[in-house]
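Subject: sequence -> structure tokens, single chain

Hey, anyone have a minute? Need the predicted structure for the following. Not urgent.
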Amino acid sequence: MTKLTSQMSIGINEFNGNYSNKSESSLLKIREISDIKIFQITQYKNSKLDISLIKIDNQILSQISGCVSANFNTRILWSGPKTWIVISKNKNIIDDINKNCSANNFAITDLSHSRMTIQIEGKNAFDVIKKGCPLNLNNFKTNMCANTVFNGITITIDLLDQDKNIFNIMSHRSFADSFYHAITDASLEYGYKIE
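Reply:
Had a minute. Here:
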């Protein structure tokens, strides 16, 4: 998969924004997360299957709003009632999904090529997101997610690590350029590095 924008490819390992007199470790790090599989799983309205019995890559399908089940390879985001987003480095995750989520009970949609994910990391990551997002992030903790907007672009925010301030932010690939420019513009004040 290619980088989401030509500007992102050109800018790799370059410092941008207000980086003068700052150590590289204090700058925000922005990168595209590629080579992942993304699937939406939706349980049919008439399905009587007990969700607590389902596991994908040994992760449960959370029934709690905004919760993420995660291990090293796979993250399962609660996306809405009876709807989850599975994001995995495992190229064969669809086999596990199909094994555990029968076609009689679930609709499974491959979103891998229609979504892009940007990861932003650093002490000012919360501040960057707050610049373009109306969501109250004050109580956001590790393994929480939310659907919201950033400068009018629909996104899904996933907090991977609260202590290190690492977020994955997913949007429609058709908005990749606009979203990339919005997130880097919001990062200028703090200085950032494209990785």
